[in-house]
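Q: Sequence in, structure out?
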Amino acid sequence: MSLIVSASSSGARGLLLRTLSPVAIIAIAQLFGTSLWFSANGAAESLMASWHATAADIGWLTSAVQLGFIIGTLTLSLSGAADRFRASTLFVISAISGALLNLAFAWLADDLLIGAVFRFGVGITLAGIYPMGMKLIVGWAPERTGLALAQLVAMLTLGTALPHALRYAGADWSWQSVITASSVLATGGAALVGLLGEGPHARKGMQSALPLLKRAGAILGAFRITKFRAATLGYFGHMWELYTFWTLVPLIISRIGLDTVYPNLGVSGLSFSIMALGALGSLLGGLLSHRVGSATVALSALSISGLCGLIFVAFESSLPVWGQLILLGVWGAAVVADSPQFSALAAKACPQESVGSALAIQNSIGFAITVVSIAATTWLFKSAGINALWLLLPGPVLGLFGFALANRAR
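A: Exactly. Output:
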């Protein structure tokens, strides 16, 4: 019986690899797995009505996911698990666990506190999906990390936006059904990575053999590498803006009335469109990175994103409706395009045997920053409206400054 199962699995894997490239398989699995991330936000309107919640409450649910992700990435990094165990195994276990916790949120939670606990658990599992997806990419395509990671982040972006598309497609669905659909997709992502397995360039690290304090010191030692530190500081500035922007997109659309001007799309359709443009921006940035380099693409995207934020918050009330929509679209495309390039720069700069742990610790700190940004901006949005977006602008500015300062200290 085991021989039959093994042969069947081998045949399915061969068919999969003949149909899609390994990078494409990982990217699609990332799309499905990360649909768990903003599943609650995709059903935000129904949730707010059902639980009598506010925009700030939805922000807290998002922050619960971010906090879980932070704990998960810290655990993976400092325990050495990110480099000790197979990335594909961690991805599969995490995606299935995340799907189950997401289902529990949909069908067992009946108030904000219980919901936040389940969303926190989903965040922990996402730590085994996003960073391990990046590690899988490095194991399969180390020679074209910038473009491959751009494809991965494009799928992360679509996965993040996907709950809004599910809400749009199933306008008459209950919010529980929208969230359940994300769990089904995540399970599919686990199946894809389970069939694919490890890449030919995957390597187990040696950090796991060290005592905890020495291992932590070795991982944090990556910050002494100038190129890693510069890329990471730029990434931190980018993270201050990115997830808060994604959290606020449906709130911005409702506040300025775009959903009434484009009723066929509504809040969900417009939110998906604006966020999904980030996938296009990420792919375009990946292609450009082969011509001009990852650093140029990352810094250009961060600059454009910051400029879009400045123009929108300063002149939103005087812009025509079509101008508001175009500006949000450009912002949505630029706000994530720098992410894979900063990650590619960081992955190339740190030692190969500790790339999983280094990327995990970078992610952990970056997502800790998003918790502060999301909480502060969504809280202020209740009273200040669009003017709350001024809080996003320090991210791109400090990211650009940090990158330049670290490189100058070389």
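Residues 226-256 form the longest helix (31 residues).
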